[in-house]
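Task card 7
Instruction: Convert sequence to structure tokens.
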Amino acid sequence: MKTQHEPIATSEYQSVLDALGRLMDGLYRGDTAQLQEVFHPKASYATASGPELIQLSVDEYMKVVSERTSPEKSGDSREYHVESITFAGPSAASARLRSVMLGYHFTDFVLLVKTDQTWRVIAKVFHGTTLNEGN
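Output:
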């Protein structure tokens, strides 16, 4: 099976990077208003880092973020690295990020969709290990 996709403009990579930057900045500062702009209202958040799967809606996740001390207020440095961005077409992309905050190493898989000319996170799935566990 052969498929052919239109080339993705460099500006789209930058737009996805910008969305990821807003995501990570919102997480770092604990800014739920900013995060709600970055997340699609129907987005899903999930992790299987612990013994059970945790899957939350955006509203449920915003409650978690609002109730915890932000990495910024905890004195964490703002560390993250975008390892890859892959496009599945002009309106779907995935990214892999690594970050350190709240005493954990995180690997995030972020799926994004472009709606109304804006890239938004539709799913965030991650794995975290404590800093002393390594990654």
